[in-house]
Amino acid sequence: MRNFVRVLRMSWAYRTRLIISVIAAACVAVFWSLNISAAYPVLVVLSKNQSLQQWVDQQIDEYERRAADKVKLKRADELRGERQRLDENPTAPDRENTERRIARELAALEKELGGYNNKAWLYRWLKTSVIQYLPDDPFRTFAWIIAALVVGIAVKGVFEFVQESLIGAVVQRTLFDFRNQFFRRGLHQDLKQLGEAGTTELMSRATNDVEQIGTGLKMLYGRVMLEPLKMATSLIAACVISWQLTVMFLAVVLVAVVALNKVSRSMKKAAKKVLERMSELYRVLREAYDGLRVVKAFTGESRERRRFRAANEDYYKKTVRVINIDAAVGPLLETLGVLSVGLALLAGAYLVLSKSTHLFGIRMVDDPIGPEALLTLYMFLATIADPVRKLSSVYTKMQSGMVAADRVFALYDRVPAVGANADGPVVPRHAKGISFRNVCFSYTPGSPILNDVNLEVAAGETVALVGPNGCGKSTLLGLLPRFYDPDHGDILIDGVSLRAANLRSVRKQLGIVTQDTVLFDDTVLANIAYGRHGATDAEVEAAAKAAHAHEFIVTLPQGYQTRTGDMAASRLSGGQKQRIALARAILRDPRILILDEFTSQIDGESEQKIQEALRTFVKGRTTFVITHRLSTLELADRIVVMDGGRIVATGKHADLIVNSPTYRRLYDTQAFGDLAGKPAA
Q: Based on CB atoms within 10 Å of each CB, which residue in 13, 228, 317, 622 is the most buried?
């Protein structure tokens, strides 16, 4: 509930619309009861074949006659006289009991006679304010009432439209703001946290779960605002006819509320499981479609079908449980509602048929009621039951919204381990060197990836990192842009610790090209310019030429304006994508360049051209290269050999081949595809 309230606070920014919607809902409720109250004059006209003028005159005469009842007036005078005599005789026997009896009887008489006078006044006001403007003919009166009812329903519809429209706008605007904030929080999470949550889980919570929150908000601001107001106006009107019968009805309604509370607990648990299964369904879909090439190559279609069917069946079962709970609530509450209305109707029917005012010795009405009043009371009670029934489905949907809010905020509230340090020292333009000091790191506790790594790199130096798979090369360079922070040790750029430095000032000096190329669903031009906002077309083209990407880009259907995302990316080979990514890094003009297997999918001829371009480009830049190709190692001023998360040797190729067993083993097993001038086996 607490997290759902947090979303409500976000919607408070649009309180003007909310306030207007509440006013509109109040108007809907008022017209709702007024429209129902039209049943009473209709029943009067149809049952008595009288015009309303005749009927109201009859009611005025009746209540004036009752108020002028001589017997009751005489009895009241007698009681007043008896009280006066009692006051004059302080020593009268049993004085206190007599005084209480006189006061009780006189109060009852005065209340009864005063009630008659009040009702006579009310009918006189009704006659002069409303009824005198209606026709004398009963049929024409009936036609006027029907016309007024149609107008009332139309006006109510206008207010309903206003309320629904405003609520819809507030809910969607709140979700718009919330999605933006959730996405912003997600972008600021560090990669370790994002890896733990998983992309599919983030997508599920940002889409499906947020929509569930929106449904809960709409129910709260819509029906939860409107239905209780409709209940209140109907309740007031029912109490005017007989508050005792209305209380009898409400006693059964309380039973429905208790039942609803019990059902809601089961609903909350079931809704949580449905959302969890939806996330699992997203995960299976993403894995299957992203890995479709592997699925087809290894004939895994049947396995993926079974996996998806299992996840889909699990989701189906949990969803059906929610549907069954939701479906059971309506009939249950409807039965209780009919029971409560039926009891009130039975009690009222007894009072009408027996012309009595008491039931089981309890006064139920001040005066005997007629069938018209009883049927109108029944209609009001029925209209109280209808909002209760509607609120039952609202409550279950709000439970789903609350569960979704808990799931979304579980990710929303995570504090990134890698802080931006907006107030930290700004790292100036890199010109001194980079130091890795006693760096240790592990993705999961107890499974170290890096152990006590020490490395000094001079500004402008090109360092190549080599070693067997899993030795920690990519992880070490991932610490430089602070994708992660070391568990122990420190990394310094020009003497400034990365932990304390302004993170944005560090990353602005970095250019990164990885083996897994990422292209956004945008044009080739925009993908290259992603590295530097405001770059001109000429600068983009120059970077593409330096990366040897210009030649194939101009052959694309729209050249630099060709889109590269989704299906459009299938027309690009892996090597072409890597060259676009390299052009992006070149355009950024970084002081520190990280190349992680950046030529893994590029053919030999293109690689040779890129090497020539890089020899010029890396001059004056601190460059880190991870590679398995000797031609790339030739760019390096120094080679760093890693094994088991440690640096085991550094030096030139000629020295390492003699002095480093690890490097020599890599050479002998042809881990470098072209070390011996021949393709790898």
A: 622
